[in-house]
Amino acid sequence: MHVTIIGGGIAGLATAFYLQEKAKEQGKDVRYTLLESGDRWGGKIATASVDGFLIEGGPDLLLTQKPAGIQLCKDLGLGERLIPTNNDRQKTFLVQNGKLVQFPADFSLVPSKFLPFALSNLFSWPAKIRMGMDFFIPPRKEESDESLADFIRRRLGTEALDKIGGPMLAGIHSADPEQLSLLGSFPMYAMMEKKYGSLIKAVRAMRKSRPSPAPGQKPPAMFNSLIGGLGEMVDALTERLGGDLRTGVVVEKIEKTDAGYDVCVDGETIQTDAIVLSTPAYAAGDLVAGFAPELSERLKAIRYVSTATISLAYQKGDVEGQHDFEGFGFLIPKNEGRRISGCTWASTKLDYRAPEDGVLLRTFVGGTGQEDLVDLSDEELVALSREEISDLMGVTAEPKFTRIFRWQKGRPQYDVGHLDRVADMEKLATDVGGVYLTGSAYRGSGIPDCVKQAVDTVEKLLGN
Question: How are beta strands 223-226 and 62-63 bridged, if at all?
Answer without folding.
Answer: antiparallel
